Amino acid sequence: MAHEDDPLEHERASWKPSPGLAVAVTDPVHTPELPPHRERVTDQDPAAMKRAVRTVYTLFYLSIAGSIWAIAAYMLFPIESGRIVDIRNNNLFIGLGIALALLAIGIAAIHWSKAIVSDKEFIEPRHATRGRDTTREAAIQAFADANEESGFGRRVLVRNSMIAALVASIAPGIVLFRGLAPQDSPEHPHAGDPVYLLEQTMWKEGSRLAHDPSGEPIRAADLTLGSAVHVIPEELASLSHHDGYLEEKAKAIVLLVRLLPEDLTESEERKDWSYNGIVAYSKVCTHVGCPVALYEQQTHHLLCPCHQSQFDVTDHAKVLFGPAARPLPQLPITVDDEGYLVARRGFTEPVGPSFWERH
Question: What is the superkingdom listed in this entry's lineage (predicted)?
Fold first, then answer.
């Protein structure tokens, strides 16, 4: 309560608006009424509602057909054949099938929401949200009302066809994963064995180390101290793309580095794997297979740009940092009678990621 001698209280009591001052009187805010509800054709005509329902589940069935066609196209036009026409048809018809499947689902869902689901407007007053029993009961009733308005529970054909279309739309993607795991065949008996495939490269005894991609053989005398050269087997340069050039190169690519011989730390069994300070390691990272191509000349470290694994070139390319689980495979090398660098033999272990099961 204000004190009777309070000057502020006296000022409030004595205040009167001046004659020229307009005083606005604010009326209470009223909630605007909803506009009159306009019924749709499907609300007025039962036959129109039946047609709308028929259209929706037909679109869902059409989506299922598109998914089935995408799977069939994957089998009818196998990209494993290597023929450019099969690759084009594979991409075209699988894409058309998946596009039809997803587009039909989208159109059906939109038509369902516009023509079948109840569109009556309603007002939902705001209230304090508290976890009372009445609140939970109201939530349950809201789900029941939504189910009734959408017709999800009553319109069995629409519901079942939608579920089937959604499930079928996933099937082409699952089937396409098959291409990531080639299967054995009479022509390729080890196509499904990644360990065997990663053990078999084009490197063999006497294979000359050649520049990538020219295929020009490399003389040991031509390598300067600190140089890092990307090399492939000489035989690979003459291989055509149709004969698997890219597949073989992906496994056989090597980084050749020249250091001072005294900088190398070599185990007894690997003393003859290098030549006069020249060492060769697989470029395929042992983490997930990225190309290890960044060489730090001062530290003698190899860096994988994908996930920053680092390998020590001076010490059998052992892992210094990063997620790689094992050193880079080393290619044993020497020189031939003409002074060209050659492989003593192929890799003694599989190249590439360590997550493959190994012997």
Answer: Bacteria
